[in-house]
Write a structure and sequence with these properties.
The complex is a heterodimer of chains A (about 450) and B (about 350).
Chain A: E1 3-6, E2 16-22, E3 29-30, E4 35-40, E5 45-49, E6 54-59, E7 65-69, E8 73-78, H1 100-103, E9 132-136, H2 137-151, E10 155-159, H3 175-179, E11 184-186, H4 191-203, E12 207-214, H5 222-230, H6 232-235, E13 245-249, H7 265-269, E14 275-277, H8 282-294, E15 299-303, H9 305-308, E16 311-315, E17 328-331, E18 336-340, H10 344-357, E19 362-366, E20 369-371, H11 375-385, E21 388-391, H12 400-411, E22 421-423, H13 434-440, H14 444-454
Parallel strand pairs in A: 10-11, 10-12, 12-13, 13-15, 14-15, 18-19, 18-21, 21-22
Antiparallel strand pairs in A: 1-8, 2-4, 2-7, 3-6, 4-5, 6-8, 9-16, 14-20, 17-19
Helix pairs in contact in A: 2-8, 4-5, 10-14, 11-12
Chain B: H1 3-11, H2 13-24, H3 35-60, H4 75-82, E1 90-94, H5 98-103, H6 108-115, E2 139-143, H7 149-163, E3 169-174, H8 181-192, E4 197-203, E5 206-207, E6 210-211, H9 212-215, E7 232-236, H10 240-255, E8 261-266, H11 284-294, H12 296-306, H13 312-335
Classes of the chains: A alpha/beta (about 450), B alpha/beta (about 350).
Bound molecules: thiamine diphosphate and magnesium ion.
């Protein structure tokens, strides 16, 4: 059977080219792999190799011809001993060959489907006799890991100083003793490498907890968090999951300056394929870390060094697992909605207390999860209060607050009585000097001022 | 002559390669294959070659888009390594992955359909040439980021060790990748923790347009593990027997718990880096010399005929069978339906 050789596309963007030179002539025998012609594309001169073998029966496009459209027959190859009829194709582009423009969805008027709505599970019901105990966020995180490691032999912890040193911030205290060095693993100081090893182990079916001493250092590993962990399920058509938790201290600590004081909330919340959690209380830290470890997806868990030592009541329940993606109304109110997360909650709750003294009842929402972001809870609150102030320590540009304000403006526009407003960290690298550092972080006073402003109170 | 052409003429990488290939593969010492192994290797390599030629053609016709990196010339590497492993061992590589998938036993139709972006492709049309996976075949991708497959492969090996099974991970990467920092981070931990991983550096002499001499302060990549006490050797990656022999040794070692090993496969890609690369950084003579003197498929073919292990007719039959498989895959991949629009938002997260 005679086979046509078509003008090939030789780059992702090529539509036509010049047939610069034939390197074979009619009657020549060609093998697959033989270079038969040279073609000039918009970018370069490329060689064309034969794919089929046989005799070059006819050249349809003479060398030197410019503007030959992709998929135009340029020659005919006949099998050994075969005659080629004279009415060989004339050199018009072959429509039947169905280049992608004819079949590809890009040109079809198919409507893009809407992104599915995110529904978080409800908060677990605690039986009324469940006791609680006061514990620090640090202890809550440790207990969450220990309980999950007892429950599932595939869960292990790796990171710098997590084992013998018991954690740079003592979060993994006691874990080496209980679980041994097979499951509590000190790594060298090579974030990119050990994060990749953790992700590989997760692709292989284990459930690693990768601790970053702080999230600042995870910048060396962000490639594996995003490119290898977050995207693989999608790129594999749903075959290959990556059940892994990346956790560590995020945001400003105290007086450690620019390279040790960045909040990565918006960076990771931006990424489809990740879940992102940033708890405030010890109870949420425990319930959400347990949920993160059980979750079959990559979860970024943003802790806060200053909160590690703070104490909160935590239910005494081995199955205290909270839903990821569900915000919590930390204080009810009807005059203004204040939304925050992680350490920002401390200023926000303090501001709400002050405002209450002035007769302004603020509703305070603790996001807890940043992806998925519980917009329904926020919108519900704004419908009631008609005002919103977001509070966070991160930089203002493209922040979690920016995202929330944009969504509220779009989805609750008719309910707003004042512009959605943000309180954020200053748009500067974190300074060292104590006075400048204080100026770079939001305060309860700023939050209260912003709330008064949207309430048009003085 | 442009500066770059001048450089290509001057470096003449071809000469070095040849001498390395020849010394590495002082091939007289390479154990022979029996008839069945020769025939198997011939068929496997031919399948990759024909598949890749067809992929190139479909790219030319616009059926395959984006970046498409062909494996033509390097077939002996995956074929020989595949002959050295057992079921349960894992594979992971870079974007130049079609050969690895075919040799792992993945269905050519599913691979080709992924190249054309169809719903029945291995990644349901969401991954394309550079990002394909098969849990069933223990093929862990298909990674588009240079260097990423090395720690990821070490992590798969970590999982083997953690579970206490005797599986080994083959972690493939290129000569260009071998300069990535994360590769050395992974080497360090793999040795420290004695992980069952074989690092297979497919040294095809070029990273896109940069020859190894222009990118690497030391060019014997088999010695890149010295600082970590990881042994390694250079292997004639154009001789499938040499690859298998080296693979057997390294795999056995790793399986016994002796930790990582580096196999630097001296190989060569005949085509450009990707479909749109005119490959002006090397001379035609260099390519021609590798093709005519070291072609991995021709070597097996010659041995089969010389030793009377097969005759022309038998080989023709294999050729025909392979062509039929590839044609069927191409036919299938051009006609299979594209993913439904509703697939846009699936496979982002797993249901908890
Ligand atoms: C981190 C990163 N940088 C750059 C690229 C672009 N890129 C893709 S392949 C390549 C060359 C890699 O060469 P090599 O490792 O020798 O593998 P080969 O292509 O020869 O198989 C480059 C620079 C990339 N994919 N990832
Ligand atoms: Mg290379």
């Amino acid at each position: 059977m005679a086979t046509e050789i078509l003008m090939p596309a030789l780059s992702p963007t090529m539509e036509e080219g010049k047939l610069a030179k034939w390197l074979v002539k009619e009657g020549d025998n060609v093998q697959s792999g033989d270079v038969i012609a040279e073609i000039e594309t918009d970018k370069a001169t490329m060689e064309v190799e034969a794919v089929d073998e046989g005799t070059l029966a006819k050249i349809l496009i003479e060398e030197g011809t410019e503007g030959v459209k992709v998929n135009t027959p340029i020659a005919v190859i006949a099998e050994e001993g075969e005659e080629v009829s004279a009415e060989a194709p004339s050199g018009a582009p072959v429509e039947a060959a169905a280049p992608p423009s004819a079949t590809a969805p890009v040109s079809s008027p198919e409507p893009a489907p809407a992104a599915p709505a995110v529904m978080a599970a409800a908060e677990p019901e605690l039986s009324p006799n469940t006791e609680s105990a006061s514990m620090t966020v640090r202890e809550a995180l440790r207990d969450a890991m220990a309980e999950e490691m007892r429950r599932d032999g595939d869960v292990f912890l790796m990171g710098e100083e997590v084992a013998q040193y018991q954690g740079a911030y003592k979060v993994s205290q006691g874990l080496l003793d209980e679980f041994g060095e097979r499951r509590v693993i000190d790594t060298p100081i090579t974030e990119h490498g050990f994060c990749g090893i953790g992700v590989g182990a997760a692709l292989g079916g284990l459930k690693p907890i990768v601790e970053f001493m702080t999230w600042n250092f995870a910048m060396q590993a962000i490639d594996h968090i995003i490119n290898s962990a977050a995207k693989t399920l999608y790129m594999s058509g749903g075959q290959m999951g990556c059940p892994i938790v990346f956790r560590g201290a995020n945001g400003a600590a105290a007086r450690v300056a620019a390279q040790h004081s960045q909040c990565y909330s918006a960076w990771y919340a931006h990424v489809p394929g990740l879940k992102v959690i940033a708890p405030y209380t010890a109870s949420d830290a425990k319930g959400l870390l347990k949920a993160a470890i059980r979750d079959p997806n990559p979860v970024v868990f943003l802790e806060n060094e200053i909160l590690y030592g703070q104490s909160f009541d935590v239910p005494k329940d081995d199955d205290w697992v909270l839903p990821i993606g569900k915000a919590k109304v930390a204080r009810e109110g009807s005059d203004v909605t204040l939304v925050s997360f992680s350490r920002g909650m401390a200023y926000t709750l303090e501001a709400a207390e002050v405002l209450a003294g002035e007769g302004i009842e603020a509703e305070v929402i603790d996001l807890r999860s940043l992806r998925p972001l519980d917009m329904p809870t926020i919108i519900e609150s704004v419908k009631k209060t008609n005002r919103i102030v977001t509070v966070e320590e991160a930089w203002p540009v493209c922040s979690i607050g920016s995202e929330i304000c944009a969504s509220v403006a779009r989805d609750a526009f008719d309910f707003l009585d004042a512009p959605p407003t943000q309180v954020t960290g200053a748009d500067v690298p974190m300074p060292y000097a104590a006075n400048l550092e204080a100026l770079a972080l939001p305060t309860a006073g700023q939050v209260a001022d912003a709330a008064r402003a949207v309430c048009y109170a003085k | 002559m442009t500066v770059s052409e001048e450089h290509a003429a001057k470096t003449q990488v071809g000469e070095d390669i040849m001498s390395i290939v020849e010394t590495a593969g002082s091939n007289s010492s390479v154990p022979d294959f029996n008839a069945e192994q020769e025939r198997h290797a011939y068929r496997e390599m031919l399948l990759i070659r024909r598949f890749e030629e067809k992929a190139g053609q479909l790219y030319g016709m616009g059926f395959i888009g984006g970046f498409c990196h062909l494996y033509i010339g390097q077939e002996a590497v995956v074929t020989g390594m595949q002959m050295a492993i057992k079921k349960g061992d894992q594979l992971i590589t870079t974007y130049r992955d079609h050969g690895h998938m075919l040799s792992a036993g993945m269905d050519p139709k599913g691979v080709m359909a992924e190249l054309t972006g169809r719903a029945s492709g291995y990644s349901h049309g969401k991954g394309g040439s550079m990002h394909m996976f098969s849990v069933e075949a223990n093929f862990y991708g298909g990674h588009g980021i240079v260097g990423a497959s090395t720690p990821l492969g070490s992590g798969l090996a970590f999982a083997n060790k953690y579970r206490g099974n005797d599986n080994v991970c083959l972690s493939y990467f290129g000569d260009g990748s071998a300069n990535q920092g994360q590769v050395y981070e992974a080497f360090n931990m793999a040795k420290l923790w004695s992980l069952p991983v074989i690092y297979i550096i497919e040294n095809n002499k070029y990273a896109m347009g940069t020859s190894i001499d222009r990118s690497s302060s030391t060019t014997d990549l088999s010695q890149r593990g010295v600082s970590f006490d990881i042994p390694g050797e250079q292997v004639d990656g154009m001789d499938v027997r040499a690859v298998k022999a080296a693979g057997d040794k390294a795999v056995a070692r790793a399986r016994e718990g002796k930790g990582p090993y580096i196999l630097e496969m001296l190989t060569y890609r005949y085509r450009g880096h990707s479909m749109s690369d005119p490959a002006k950084y090397r001379t035609k003579e260099e390519v021609q010399k590798m093709r005519s003197e070291h072609d991995p498929i021709e070597q097996v073919r010659a041995r089969l005929l010389d030793k009377g292990l097969a005759d022309e007719d038998e080989l023709k039959l294999i050729d025909k069978e392979v062509r039929a498989i590839v044609s069927e895959a191409a036919e299938y991949a051009q006609n299979a339906p594209e993913p439904e629009a509703s697939e846009l938002y699936t496979d982002i997260l797993k249901e908890s």
